[in-house]
Design a protein that fits this description.
With 428 residues, the protein is of the alpha/beta class. It folds into 2 domains: 208 residues, 3-Deoxy-D-manno-octulosonic-acid transferase, N-terminal domain (Rossmann fold), CATH 3.40.50.11720; 188 residues, 3-Layer(aba) Sandwich (Rossmann fold), CATH 3.40.50. It is built from 19 helices and 14 strands. The strands form 2 sheets. It has a 7-stranded parallel beta sheet, sandwiched between helices. It has a 7-stranded parallel beta sheet with strand order 10-11-9-8-12-13-14. Strand 13, helix 16 and strand 14 form a beta-alpha-beta unit. Helix 3 packs parallel to helix 4 and helix 11 crosses helix 17. The longest helix is centred in the N-terminal third of the chain and has 22 residues.
Length: 428
């Protein structure tokens, strides 16, 4: 089965590269470092001496989630360097933002999942440990790591029932990959149960590392500066919105019955910034953009477009209420923990299957409310914006919810330590 899978990759490769080229028209980052995606790493700074711990974080969310773990690995293993790999330019940019000043962290793309390309990658970097963040399980990566005796840990792991059902259609492929894992650190009991069902051994529940992410002081300061631009206006931030959601939100905006309220939209994908700007102005709404407003007041703009990367904590800090996107449509939702960490009341839509436990627990803690659609989003936001006492209580509940669920990084480090002991002893 894996042979068929690998052949399919090689057949599809010209189309995959064409897609990179086309997508690069909107996101130039997709046209950079293409050789790395094919297993060639001559330009990647690597001294060939320092032992490597490899952490794979596919995109922005996984990279941010990896920060506490990478910091802990750097502290616990001072002789090692971290190889941080990604699949998207935005993930790579986020890694550069978080670790660009840390010379012990090197970055590259993970190659496409063929045995030959992954083999070149492993021969070049010779990692002592592979740490996959959240949901990234690649059959040839697993096979090549097994062949080279590189232990693999899936951490901060989550697996929805929908994803499990898809994987179970190909048990010879994904079951074999899951069985090759050295250990799994799952976010919740439900995730652990589904991952075991897929065939993974040594599965533990450690919680979500995202609860250990601390809002950077610089981002909070930037948020305060943004808030000064917004003035005394009530602010509803709709963050991590996905294709199709912005139209629903904008069409429902008249239901936000709060005088002079400001809607902030922060799309999930940067290639859609201009598209969303056109969508806003086409509805006759006055628009200000983060990229052009700078630090100047935004005047009477009805909508503020957060067309920047790496500032999510700042947008949340500048808001009164946060709606977390990907949840109005059946897309699975996105991380609500960042909004909770800065003490903001959270609204989420009906579709949060990617973060089901976190969403349900936040609701139970009084930190979040679930809304059925965009109209109810605006009505619930109106109610909270007009009720300062309730809004502040929800915000405090959100902060406490974030703080009470920490500790996953320490528990994950305990699981990873035995995987490194034999190699560390051998190195001595």
């Amino acid at each position: 089965m894996r042979l068929i899978y690998s052949v399919a990759w090689w057949i599809a490769l010209p189309l995959v590269l064409l897609r990179l080229l086309l997508r690069g028209r909107q996101e130039p980052g997709y046209r950079r470092h293409v050789a790395e995606r094919l297993g060639f790493y001559g330009d990647v700074a690597h001294d060939g001496i320092s032992p490597i711990l490899w952490v794979h974080a596919v995109s922005v969310g996984e990279t941010r989630a990896a920060q506490p773990l990478i910091d802990a690995l750097l502290a616990a293993y001072p002789a090692h360097r971290i190889l941080l790999t990604h699949m998207t330019p935005t993930g790579r940019a986020t890694g550069r933002e978080l670790f660009g000043k840390q010379d012990r962290v090197i970055q590259s793309y993970l190659p496409y999942d063929t045995g030959w390309m992954v083999g070149r990658f492993l021969r070049h970097f010779r990692p002592q440990l592979c740490v996959l963040m959240e949901t990234e399980v690649w059959p040839n990566v697993m096979a090549q790591c097994t062949q080279r005796r590189v232990p693999v840990a899936l951490v901060n792991a989550r697996l929805s029932q929908r994803s499990l059902n898809r994987a179970l259609r190909f048990p010879a492929l994904f079951g074999e990959a899951a069985a090759a894992m050295s250990c799994v650190a799952a976010q919740t009991d439900g995730d652990a149960q589904r991952i075991r069902q897929l065939g993974a051994p040594n599965v533990h529940v450690t919680g979500s590392i995202k609860f250990d992410v601390v809002p950077p002081a610089a981002m909070l300061e930037r948020g305060a500066a943004l808030r000064a631009q917004f003035g005394q206006r009530a602010v509803l931030t709709c963050a991590n919105t996905r294709d199709g959601e912005e139209a629903l939100i904008l069409d429902a905006l008249p239901s936000l019955d709060v005088a002079d309220a400001l809607l902030v939209i922060v799309p999930r994908h940067p290639q859609r910034f201009d598209e969303i700007a056109r969508m806003i102005t086409a509805r006759g709404l006055s628009l200000a953009r983060r990229s052009s407003a700078g630090d100047t007041p935004i005047g009477d703009a009805r909508v503020f477009l957060g067309d920047s990367m790496g500032e999510m904590f700042a947008y949340y800090a500048a808001s009164d209420i946060a709606f977390v996107g990907g949840s109005l449509l059946p897309l699975g939702g996105h991380n609500l923990i960042e909004a909770c960490a800065v003490g903001k009341p959270v609204l989420i839509g009906p579709h949060t299957f990617n973060f089901a436990d976190a969403a349900d627990n936040a609701i139970a803690a009084g930190a979040a409310l679930r809304i059925a659609d965009a109209e109810e989003l605006m009505k619930q936001a109106t109610s909270l914006l007009l009720d300062e006492r309730e809004r502040k209580q929800m915000g405090e509940n959100a902060r406490q919810f974030s703080q009470q669920h920490g500790g996953a990084t320490e528990r994950t480090m305990t699981l990873l330590a035995p995987l490194l002991v034999p190699q560390s002893m051998a190195a001595r």
